[in-house]
Amino acid sequence: MDKLLKTLLLLLLLSSQSFFAQQISNTAQEIERQKADLETQKSLKENYKKLDYKLDQLKKEQKELESKKKALSKSENDLKSTKEKISKLELANQKIENKITTSSISEEEIQKQRIKTKENEVNIQKLKLNQITQEKELEKAMSAI
User: At residue 61, does pLDDT exceed 90?
Assistant: First the structure.
């Protein structure tokens, strides 16, 4: 009976050691899994930070491009408007010249019409200078994009 008790005790002791060893192994595996989870979470946070930063940069670039696009559009419209004004003044001068040459009007009226054409010519020259400036601004806006 003594041998039986010793054997039983030995088996009980071995099974408890096996049980504790298995629990320690399970605990170690759990700790490793938790470490891996923490590393994954840390990596995810870093990646989200990087993505947020890149998104902010892209939004800034988009705003800059939209601003440059607006500037380009404005320059194009200003230039178009100036060209239209020049064309209108040139057409007006042609009509005045035709009126002077084709109709019989008084010398005084002819002088008034010639003054008007000279005024238009001055305005045309001013607009042409303005047009040159606008073309340079347009080139700047185009090169900025």
Answer: yes
